[in-house]
Design a protein that fits this description.
3 helices; 60 residues; mainly alpha; globular
Length: 60
């Protein structure tokens, strides 16, 4: 886990936040996306996604 977390240009659906998290922690993108959907049902997923969208830099 020594690599920097960046939002990829390829393999993303909206902003690449889930793809960046999946690549960083070595888990499937689908699992991360399902997690955000579940957190979205409780009202916090959208805020976390937007915050990470702003915080995680785009891949060069």
């Amino acid at each position: 886990m020594a690599t920097a977390m960046v939002r990829p240009r390829n393999g993303k659906m909206i902003a690449g936040v889930c793809a960046a998290l999946a690549a960083r922690f070595g888990i499937p993108k689908a699992l991360v996306r399902i997690g955000f959907v579940l957190f979205g049902l409780f009202g916090i997923g959208e805020f976390v996604y937007i915050a990470l969208w702003v915080i995680i830099p785009k891949e060069a």
